[in-house]
């Protein structure tokens, strides 16, 4: 099963070097084990698109609720939701405080 | 958290951590079985404590710490507390003081290699393939026995038995916990790769209806492969296998229709291919190539898969490149199936004649005699050459051989399409003639049974719908070579006699030359069973038919009849006693470490009992008297005889048989490796009700022995 893990922005201080190093090691380990398929950071500003009645409305960010914006993602391959949660626990143990979501990704077979 | 949630959390942690924990414990205690027990104890503690306390911060280190304490207790408690144990316990105990974080770090460094060692041990070639698979999924995948059983469609006790036996074998053979080096390494590594690919293929063969666990085997194999690639990054074949699996897995959504019908590669919707997996596959193949060295079978297969994955449409496929890769593959993996795939690639690259020329050479290949893809590929190529009538027969044969229902439907549709393109002749078909031959009332039951075996093999190999006049002696000879080329002379001669008798009978019926019926100039209403007065011969290999009044009992000479057995020489049958194998050779045989349990048991039994091969293979589990070191078999086979006799063995066999029985209650003692192949289903008595496998055939047993020793099984008897 694939899961998309996302983290939301906040007014947290930027991570220390030690945290970065630990996170790099974690990402490397998870990639090597084939668990982490893709990961990246996201520009919280982004561009908002809304389609209505065939008309597209495009609004450039940033938006007011920075806390709600998704700022990073990881696509993982796990055997169960519990395994995804366990990986997430390890992630947050390194990062510290914050919030995010775990959603199963449905592939063509689902 | 509810206790159910906690259990699921523990299970998830266990699956992620068990390999590292067990690997670390094996290094400490030196025994896989004990290490797993200790790890299970730790798991039990987690199941008891975590629902109360919550999952600890570092669950892996927590489990490891508990398991280590158990290990120390165990070593100290041991009855034979020798100095080594004492020292070991001390070492572990002093290291236990380190904090959990340090421990975890230490784990990461050392345990990587430990996990690799564990893979080499659990995939050790001394274990039978099924045990290697079960043990690996259990130790490295953290799968429960029940999950493995469900995935492989076998019973839970069967899996448990395999695991227990494997652990016992590892302990008995004192397999060291190490990463093999030197000349041994390549063979040991290929054994690991074989296990992973076996797991993958088992999952890949599963269909939608089979449920999640079977399909999940693909993911599990991929996970193990990726893990191995991380642990042994310098091995090209490891990356090759990973690349192959990533790309095959990328097609999983496209390779069946929603209703479960298989979709051929060239007809798949490539938009449903998983691009993420494809790119992982590309990257893995690139890493394999960077490792250098000669191209191994997995790297070459991955390169072929990459060729397909790179083509945006089926038409863009680079068949020239694929054909070249198959040529290289055929050199390192010279199997008939690879040759068959190469034939397809050649046909795509250079036209159907090129492919057919290669495919035709495979017709006499014994291992392909029941393989539906050979006739199906040949049918395909014959259609492209406009030879519809021959193609129709090939598709019908393929349909009769395949076990897959949807595939059979497709093949029969193709056969029907060929029939429309070229209506079949009105000459009697092989099936019609064979039935008429066997239903004569002057044959006794035993003869009908014996001839029936020969005829059904010919029908299966040549096609029921083949017009009898089209059957040539050369084709019959090919069938014989494939089916009975390796059998005992008496078997060969028995089938040969059946064909001779059939030839004589068919000639007297005028069935062998029905050419005018197929001749466009001939009368379409011509009665094919009527003997033509002057039968035209279609080619020089055929002789004119003899007259209808000829007495079948008379000795027909070949120039009077078209003898279908013309290409079959009579084989000399051994007279008197077979020369037994020398004692030194026999002794050396038992010392060989590479013998599978079944073969070791059968051979030892034949040697100790001096029983006939047929009698030994006829043994059933329910008729064994283990304490009495004997087993009962029905006396005589195929003849009018009743009663039974005993096959008696000695201590060596007696020790092995319980392992081979492995908890089964009935059915054949010696089972074939595979479930029954296509073609005739085995007689009920030859099918194991518990495993679904058929009785080991005489031919296969003889073949394996010949391969291993160069002798025949008969020569094992002591006299």
UniProtKB/TrEMBL annotation, chain A:
InterPro entries: Dimeric_a/b-barrel, YCII. Pfam families: YCII. It comes from the Bacteria. Residues 1-89 form the YCII-related domain. Belongs to the YciI family. This is Uncharacterized conserved protein. It comes from Streptosporangium subroseum.
Automatic annotation (TrEMBL), chain B:
One of its GO terms (biological process) is DNA integration. PANTHER family: BLL0085 PROTEIN (PTHR47756:SF1), BLL6612 PROTEIN-RELATED (PTHR47756). Pfam families: DUF6596 (PF20239), Phage_int_SAM_1 (PF02899), Sigma70_r2 (PF04542), Sigma70_r4_2 (PF08281). InterPro entries: CB, DNA_brk_join_enz, DUF6596, Integrase_SAM-like_N, RNA_pol_sigma-70_dom, RNA_pol_sigma70_ECF_CS, RNA_pol_sigma70_r2, RNA_pol_sigma70_r4_t2. This is RNA polymerase sigma factor. It comes from the Bacteria. One of its GO terms (molecular function) is sigma factor activity. Belongs to the sigma-70 factor family. ECF subfamily. Residues 516-529 have a biased composition (Basic and acidic residues). Residues 513-558, 671-691 are annotated as: Disordered. Residues 428-507 form the Core-binding (CB) domain. Keywords: DNA-binding, Sigma factor, Transcription, Transcription regulation.
